[in-house]
Write a structure and sequence with these properties.
Layout lengths: L14 H6 L5 E2 L20 E6 L2 E7 H5 L4 E8 L4 E12 H7 L9 E6 L4 E5 L9 E6 L2 E2 L9 E3 L12 E7 L6 H4 L19
Parallel strand pairs: 1-5, 2-11
Antiparallel strand pairs: 2-3, 4-5, 5-8, 6-7, 6-11, 8-9, 8-10
Length: 205
């Protein structure tokens, strides 16, 4: 397992920054790259995204089909469990709500989901953290196609949770009846990862 080094250091924060920073975080203008394993490179002509429940395929999209779905722009703050935060990041992609609708579903068939990615990474999520415009499959950052180092061609974006939940190189979303840990969660990280509650590790509130 390779974990690249993140940004280190602290900067003085203004009043607005202090209000927007979750406890224990520091602000950086950089976008540090941290990866569990080597960077994945998948050409868009070989990329696809599937939506599953149990053994049933609910929907599948090629790159062109995915980009024909409704697109949403989102400006959000992001927070890494390694304690850096970056404000006002700009993203574009397809919300999970629109993806579910594109599969012909009127709602989620379960309360839990596992995101599976190229490179063998996975992370578990509550559907309540993904719906209502709270999450998307992002393909652009700062008006440019998402770089492989930041999860391109497409990554999950769940900005209100610690950033390990925003899984890079996402390829499959699997609805689940039960909540089971993904990659980092099985190694002792928190099942949910709320930055404002400092849910970094198993046993945190």
């Amino acid at each position: 397992m390779l974990v690249t080094r993140g940004f280190k250091g602290k900067r003085r924060q203004g009043d607005d920054a202090r209000r927007r920073l979750p406890p224990g975080q520091f602000l950086t203008p950089e976008f540090p790259v941290l990866t569990a394993g080597p960077t994945q490179h998948t050409a868009t002509d070989r990329w696809s995204l599937s939506l599953q429940f149990g053994g049933k395929l609910l929907g599948s999209w090629s790159w062109d089909q995915f980009n024909a779905l409704p697109q949403t722009d989102l400006t959000v703050d992001i927070h890494c469990v390694t304690k850096w935060s970056k404000f006002d990041t700009k993203w574009r992609g397809v919300t999970i709500d629109d993806l579910i609708a594109a599969a012909g579903l009127e709602g989620s068939p379960s309360s839990f989901l596992m995101a599976h990615c190229d490179g063998g990474y996975s992370t578990n999520l509550l559907l309540s953290d993904l719906l209502g415009g709270r999450a998307m499959i992002a393909t652009h950052f700062a008006d440019l196609p998402l770089l492989p180092s930041h999860g391109g061609p497409a990554r999950l974006l769940v900005p209100h949770l610690y950033f390990w939940k925003s899984a890079k190189w996402v390829r499959r979303l699997a609805f689940r009846e039960e909540d089971k840990p993904g990659f980092w969660e099985s190694l002792g990280y928190h099942r949910r990862g709320d930055p404002w509650l400092e849910q970094r590790y198993e046993g945190d509130r």
